[in-house]
Amino acid sequence: MDVRQPVSERRHHLRLGSYAVICIKDETGKSSWRFVEDISLGGMRIYAERPLDQGDILDMELKAENTGQAFRFKALVAWCDPGVTGRAGLTFVEMEPPMRDWLQTYLGAGG
After folding, report:
1. Quick one: which H or E segment has residue 59?
2. Are 25 and 11 in contact (CB under 8 A)?
3. Domain-by-domain residue ranges, the chain?
4. Bridge partner residues of 74 (DSSP)
5. Nearest residue to 48 (alpha-carbon basis) of 60, 32, 63
6. CB 38 within 8 A of CB 18
């Protein structure tokens, strides 16, 4: 994937606005919560209190506000916007079937 393309050209899945939050654990084990701006079967765009490093693989937990369910997964930082603090695009690299099922239901229902 060419990260120099506009975001709209890099998307391969339907993406919806989201009311979910995620927890990211850094290399020291410290957790911080981030807001999910939009989400798809392939990944998500988030806003955070600090920029993330492109290429990092993050251990994460998503809390679905519509159901209260929590899902653990891994995501790759595909891109980050240095002009906007903490804005980043993440690609799912490891996801359990219950999270995929929730995402398919969420996306199919239009959020």
Report:
1. strand 57-63
2. no
3. 7-108
4. 59, 94
5. 32
6. yes
Cβ neighbours for 48, distance < 8 A, ≥ 6 positions apart: 24, 32, 34, 35, 85, 86, 87, 88
- Per DSSP, the three-state class of 98 is helix
What pLDDT does residue 47 have? Answer: 81
Q: Amino acid identity of 106? A: Y
pTM reported for the whole predicted model = 0.74
The pLDDT tens digits for 17-71 are 555 777 877 667 778 777 888 888 999 988 877 778 889 898 888 888 778 888 9
In the CATH hierarchy, which top-level class contains the domain 7-108?
Answer: mainly beta
pLDDT band at 96 (very low <50, low <70, confident <90, very high): very high
Answer for the pair 100, 108: CB distance below 8 angstroms, yes or no. Answer: no
Which residue has tokens 């369910």? 69
